[in-house]
Each structure stands twice: as C-alpha cells, then as structure tokens.
Amino acid sequence: MFRDMRRKRQALPPEQCAAILRRGTSGVLALAGDAGYPYAVPLSYVYTDGKLYFHCAKAGHKLDAIQREPRASFCVIDQDEIVPEEYTTYFRSVIAFGRIRILADDAQKRSAIDALAAKYAPNAPVDDRKRAIDRGWAPLCMLEMEIDHLTGKEAIELVQQPPATK
Length: 166
What we know:
Elements: H1 14-23, E1 27-32, E2 38-43, E3 46-48, E4 51-56, H2 61-68, E5 71-83, E6 88-102, H3 106-120, H4 126-135, E7 141-154, H5 156-159
Antiparallel strand pairs: 1-2, 1-5, 3-4, 4-7, 5-6, 6-7
Helix pairs in contact: 3-4
C-alpha cells in the first residue's frame, strides 16, 4: 500500500523517526480538501503513545476535510540547513501516514490536550495549565492521528557523518 523509499540508504530507522516526532514543534497536516484540491495546514502537535494529537476549533476546513476523508499525512522537518557552496540542503524529515478521528470522549480529549499543554508549556505549573485548558474547553476540538506508516529521510551528506554528530 505504501511505496518503498527509493533512496534506502537515506531512510531513517523507526526509533529516529519517533525521536524527531517527539522533539518537533510543528508540522504540516495534508488532507483531501475541497473540490479535489489538497489542503495542507501547519499545526502544533504532540506525539505520544505512537499517535499524533492536534487541537482545532469545532468547525472549519480542516474538520470538513477529515469528516469527508480521514486519511492524512503529517510532515515534520527536523533539519533544513542550506549549504550554498554545495547547492543543496542538509535535511532530515519524517512523514506519518494515517487516519484522523475527532476525540469525542472527554477523558481522551483531556488527556490529549494535557499532553499538548505539557509539551508547549513544560515549566508552567500543572494548575496553571489546567486553568488555561478549562478556559478554552468549550470551543476545543482534539484530533487523534493513528499512524499506519512512518517514514523518515535525511540528506546523503548526513548519512555519511558519524552518528555522534546527528
């Protein structure tokens, strides 16, 4: 179902892909948009327990697209260093393919937004995060992406570097 990577030497192992998802702060969610046009939107996210979680409003283009077609991809760029003298970039990125669902259960929704808040405000007291979540609870929608396939790739120049420098 999913294509094999053409440049297999540049493929990242699953544990490195997961590490990139854990440390990344934003990515681009790609969905089947209106009238056959792709819809790609940059989002904050959290990766936990092998799943991706996003927050959004309870209505809009993103939710319409997900309700029409839950299959999606999510791309995170870990490194993008321009090397002008080599006419290239030293890149490292991950793409997750999977299915998105809207979390309807309040306990699941709370767990997901707690993880997101802890990621983006790790030094905030738990009570402060809880109050912020409670204030924004009514219009909050949480999405969960179950990953079916995860792939990562890096520039050949990074493959050739010793592991300690990655």
